[in-house]
Design goal:
Helix content: 10-25%
Number of domains: 2
Number of helices: 4
CATH topology of the largest domain: Ribosomal Protein L25, Chain P
CATH architecture of the largest domain: Beta Barrel
Number of strands: 13
Radius of gyration: 37 Å
Length: about 240
């Protein structure tokens, strides 16, 4: 399941581009928390702490216990979105979605194969993964980092559907059960050209010439004159 981590944050009173630039210059990152019964609240978190948290995250879903300065209790939230700089990839902004530990949430988790299918290892097939992520529903405490599926027994033509996946306790898929998650395809074999076509290609194109009939005048060359036929000698 997703690891719950603690993160310190402070309320952010100044908004706007100029204030954000000053914030980043001080080693802080702008953030916001929304969801639940409270209004969206602008926050600021330390760049070093948010970088450390995201670098150690084992999955895309990070469950955070936010300790907001000035508030008597912490707030549980999911990292909803992380905005990165297009140059360098630094974290520029973080969105937190407040959740309650006793209320169901919906999330998308990565789907990963485990093992090498027998149809791939023995018969040269190809493993095709049709689903990369799965939409699920669960309590925040049951949120998995990822869903793993053992594909080692798949042979050529075999498939694994969503209904056949073993989900962790408390986790329910929110996609049609008949969707195909993994399948093993037969190896692609290129068809050989027929022997006759191969021989014809090797021999080259056939050249057809017409035999001129007797007495037919030859075609004059460009710019030349056609010669008149000789008269037959008259009998004396």
């Amino acid at each position: 399941m997703a690891k719950q981590v603690k993160l310190k944050a402070e309320p952010r009173t100044n908004v706007g581009r100029s204030s954000v630039r000053k914030l980043r210059a001080r080693g802080l990152i702008p953030a916001v928390i929304y969801g639940g019964n409270d209004k969206p609240q602008p926050l600021q978190v330390a760049t070093r702490e948010i970088n450390a948290m995201m670098s150690h995250a084992s999955g895309e879903n990070v469950l955070v216990e936010l300790e907001i300065a000035g508030e008597g209790s912490s707030r549980t939230a999911l990292v909803q979105e992380v905005q990165h700089s297009p140059v360098g990839g630094e974290i520029r902004h973080v969105d937190f979605h407040a959740v309650s530990m006793d209320q169901m949430i919906q999330a998308e988790v990565p789907l990963e194969p485990v093992g090498i299918p027998v149809g791939v290892k023995t018969f040269g097939g190809l493993l095709e993964q049709s689903l990369r992520v799965l939409a699920i529903e669960c309590l925040p405490g049951d949120l998995p980092d990822r869903i793993t599926v053992d594909v080692s027994q798949l042979n050529i033509g075999d498939s694994i559907h969503v209904r056949e996946i073993q989900f962790p306790s408390g986790v329910t898929p929110k996609v049609p059960p008949d969707l195909t998650a993994f399948s093993v395809l037969a190896p692609v074999v290129e068809e050989e050209a027929p022997v006759a076509e191969a021989e014809a290609a090797a021999a080259g194109p056939e050249v057809i010439t017409e035999k001129k009939e007797e007495g037919e005048a030859a075609t004059p060359a460009p710019g030349g004159k056609e010669k008149a036929p000789k008269e037959k000698e008259q009998k004396k």
